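Case study.
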Amino acid sequence: MHGSPTASAGTLIVGAGQAGLQLAVSLRAGGYSAPITLAGAETDRPYQRPPLSKSFLAGTIDEDNLALRAPGFYTDNDIDVVAASRIVTLNPDSSGASALTNGGRVIRFERLALTTGSRPRRLTVPGADLFGVCYLRSIDDAGRLRELLNAAHSVVVIGGGFIGLEAAAAARRRGLHVTVVESSGRLLRRVVAPPISEFYRQAHLKRGVRFRMGCGVTAVHGDDDGNVTTVELSDGTRLAADVVIVGIGVEPRIELARQLGLDCARGIIVDDQARTSNPSIVAAGDCTVQPHPRHPETLIGLESVQNAVDQAKVAAATILGVSRPPAVVPWFWSDQSDLKLQIAGLSTGYDEFVVRGDPATESFSVLYYRQSRLIAVDAVNQPHDFMAVKRALALGASIPATVAGDTRSALKVLMGAPDPAERLTVGVRP
Amino acid sequence: MPKIVLHAPNGALFTVDAQIGASVMETAVKHGVPGIVAECGGALSCATCHIYVAEAYIDLTGRADDFEDEMLDDTVADRKPNSRLSCQIRMTAALDGLEADIAPEQ
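After joint prediction, the assembly is written out as follows.
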């Protein structure tokens, strides 16, 4: 069925993560019949990353559970997965556009999609390359870390963000001594309001994790064999460590985009059709920045499975030349110990928040407002609040801040009438 | 290998082989069964793998636990007594032939 008389060279998708896979899947689902090549630098076929810092690290699931599709899926859908191949050069302009892999293979293409993802930001202090200093991004990273934790006693986690806290919880569950070092004054600073930050600090403390807040790391020290032994902090103290987990954020992979001369900020700049500054090239997932759905003058990067999947669907629609799917409410989750955080909406730019429920019960939520309009929720072990706000945001309904804290009423009961003007209508083609 | 029989919202029927221990969601997604979105990959976070388990199997699969129960209260498609999130059903030999309808919307 593939390969018409005027055989198209098809689409090359660079990056075989969640976004890349979804793009391929959505192209086929949309009737795309030309070749699809999905090229990835890793040896594994597309797999789920979120469990790597959660259940995989805790040891409750294994590599087999991580694969996003069965091997037969790719043959059945005629998706050519080129694994363990990094694209080093792209030549998109000529009539016979092609890419060159690090293994010397040439891949021809007509349309190009960049789903290159991101890489962990590296620790740059002296000793950062000692054995035992780990990052958490790939199956290989997580597998190696899991091995090391089996023989570890003391773990220092650098960075109090989601990856750091999830890894800290998993290490603590194994009974290890765990200290989280966070350079700012509070945890998850970039993404949540102070009550959530403080809740997580208390909750992890209660489970035996220690914290060094407001401290930077100045050096990592090791023994004569090159194994890490201590982490030195900006106040001069040294923490014993046989494993150091670095979770200090990610950097979008934009080298190829730059090579192509595409406009980039922190990530590859795309519009609400997932088009780069060269409209024939699309990009999706962690490697991109995009217009904020309600404040399009601001570019935002969304590092989430949900964004990878939904932006990839948009990118596929652009390649297919059909209307993009409707915008969805951004959402995110984090599992730390027995605490499930679910986030709906984007809280950036909030000017007011309401705490609903008592954080001491470990089941509560925080609703965020901007100019009195509901914009997001962080729900801890509180799925009803998460689901209600997610739906309210999708419908363009608000929940007045004056009543949102009243736990005697369910949020879905407190929800106001949908306002069509507030619905997420971004990107619908005129 | 136990089999799972899934009725897609468009009427199509899918029979897929499951590995013991794998979830119904995982098995369906890996084989490309449409209608089960499962954005969170089985973390009980998104409620987009909603199915209706056939009556004959509901005692074998059991009912939703507390957290799943709360998520099911707010799914897009109607909740029914036999509603489950398919990421929370692990396949066993006893579940061979498990039949379910995929919810029309996720």
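Observations recorded in class. Chain A has eleven helices and 26 strands. Chain A has three domains: 11-119+251-320, 133-248, 338-422. We will return to this complex in the next lecture.
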